[in-house]
Amino acid sequence: MKKIITTICMVLLIFSLTFTLVSCDISDDITENTTDTVQYTQSNTVLEKSSREVLSYFNSLVNSVKTELPSVSYTQELKIDNKTMKISKAQGDDEDSLRSFNDALPGIKDLILTDIKKKSGSVSFGDENSDVFFVKGESWSSALTVDDINSAVIKEIGDKYYITITFDDIPEQSRATLARAFELRDKATVLNSPEFAKMESYLKLNDYSVEYTGCAITATVDRLTDTLTDVTYRKTSNVSAQVKGLETFEKYGDMIVDFVLADTTSFNFVWTQSYETSPLETSEKE
């Protein structure tokens, strides 16, 4: 029974870190249809396609979401790969005592984390969106510079621009780079989160480290009007938490809890206000 409770506590720890931390490689799966002949229309903004110019263009578009207030809808999906979850001794000894915990982690994780795997929401046209759209609480959405990114590329297909911005791997001490466009929480906020009260009698989170890998931003733009259609943020966090067993679990001492969290958040925008048609207007047209 104690092992089951301990395993649940470990999963709750992962749950809490996931909940407090959140708010990859991008496959090029867009193909151009060349079977039909279409009339070409000049873009509203013609780009030379350097990373600096593409990033500047992206920044201007994404920052306009905070000032022009289109309707915003979003979905966020969180995934933790079972193979990445592991509990180990801080000193690397007596690993056998934790084997049953590691074996039980995937099943209990799937039960406990169900409620936060995916969420969605929306903001109406003209309403303040700073509590929903990145970066939350700020009057801007991107302050990225060309020094912050690995590359910014743009592809023109039909009436759309497709923008992809990639990043190098980013260690915890350089998190300020991602914070210029992604939603991140500082370490003090995470460590002092009330989420950890759920396990304070069993486990103490002493510290944690995060390395962000495979991060990318993709965006679709109506090139004829220079308006953002959608933007997706992908972030993979390699998390390693230092935990100490308390009271009943004091015998386990200092432990390391590792897992990898994949966070994908997508936003869609509508830049015109829609009005419902009244029954009277409908009958007049008929």
Question: Could you give a short description of this structure?
Answer:
This protein is of the alpha+beta class and 286 residues long. 22% of the residues lie in helices and 32% in strands. β8 (227-245) and β9 form a beta hairpin.
Structure, explained:
Strand 4 (151-157) and strand 5 form a beta hairpin. The longest helix is centred in the first third of the chain and has 20 residues, at 2-21. This protein has one domain. Strands 1, 2, 3, 4, 5, 6, 7, 8 and 9 form a nine-stranded antiparallel beta sheet that branches. Helices cover 22% and strands 32% of the residues. It is α+β, with helices and mostly antiparallel strands and 286 residues long.
Q: Main β-sheet: number of strands, strand sense, barrel status? A: 9 strands, antiparallel
As a percent range, the share of strand residues is: 25-35%
Rg, alpha carbons: 23 Å
Count of helical stretches: 5
User: Whole-Å distance between the termini?
Assistant: 70 Å
Question: What's the mean pLDDT score?
Answer: 81
Helix/strand-derived class? alpha+beta
Order of helices and strands: HHEEHEEEEHEEEH
- Can you count the beta strands? 9
User: What is the number of independent domains?
Assistant: 1
Shape: elongated
Helix content: 10-25%
Uncertain spans, ≥5 residues at pLDDT below 50? 1-5, 24-38
How is this fold's topology laid out?
Blueprint: H1 2-21, H2 51-68, E1 71-80, E2 86-89, H3 99-112, E3 118-123, E4 151-157, E5 160-166, E6 170-171, H4 187-191, E7 203-222, E8 227-245, E9 254-270, H5 279-285
Antiparallel strand pairs: 1-3, 1-9, 2-9, 4-5, 5-7, 6-7, 7-8, 8-9
Helix pairs in contact: 1-3
